[in-house]
């Protein structure tokens, strides 16, 4: 039976490319989203994916949502924690609300989701948890204290949980994309974006499909020896 994979924020951008790549690789894929039902349902229907709407910030909604996916498709064996937001501001202007929204979505959301699938993965002796962090969690970014903190937090989350999962056949890894051509990056002002591209040695933004291929590799049986790692995919912009 094909494995079940869940991609949070899987109807747009990197998440959508990941969902399609996993489906192509033979998984049964559920995608989650939080915004417009029409847009996400249209994407899911067009590609034959199952789509579910709830916020990863809501623990109880995650409990119910994962239970529904498991009832519909079967036990979740691959979880891609991709959902993420930005609420950028210089620190002296950053509101507590902007801080909490980003931490709640990008970091606590990963706890909320992973907690639902972890017990089953331990029992079955197999699992893949793949967390989408960011280059800006590695190097820090002006105007993104909240985002950089959340994304750096994911790297620690991954390293700690990888050690807990290892003897149960569960791997936990982080991917740190550089700048990728999605709506999140298109929201960056044109001149700022050009300056960013000038700093990328390969001379271009990444494509969502390039991150999706990192995910399908880490999800595969062949990647079983890789856990607790940080896979950097940033066109050479920041070398760790
Ligand atoms: P997009 O803004 O294109 O898409 C974000 C997705 O996350 C959407 O599907 C959105 O759902 C979903 N989402 C947001 N908040 C929630 C929530 N509370 N609950 C459930 N789903 C939610 O983002 P990208 O594709 O650009 O980014 C994907 C991930 O990659 C993010 O974690 C981002 O931080 C990270 N990243 C992106 C980079 C880039 O250059 N693009 C670089 C480095 C990291 P909906 O469609 O319903 O709004």
Automatic annotation (TrEMBL):
GO terms for molecular function: acetoacetyl-CoA reductase activity. Residues 3-178 form the Ketoreductase domain. The lineage of its organism: Bacteria, Pseudomonadati, Pseudomonadota, Alphaproteobacteria, Hyphomicrobiales. The keyword Oxidoreductase applies. Pfam families: adh_short_C2 (PF13561). CDD domains: BKR_SDR_c. PANTHER family: 3-OXOACYL-(ACYL-CARRIER-PROTEIN) REDUCTASE, 3-OXOACYL-[ACYL-CARRIER-PROTEIN] REDUCTASE FABG. It comes from the Bacteria. It comes from Chelativorans composti. The keyword Protein transport does not apply. This is Acetoacetyl-CoA reductase. Belongs to the short-chain dehydrogenases/reductases (SDR) family. Its EC number is 1.1.1.36. It is an enzyme of class 1 (oxidoreductase). Keywords: Oxidoreductase.
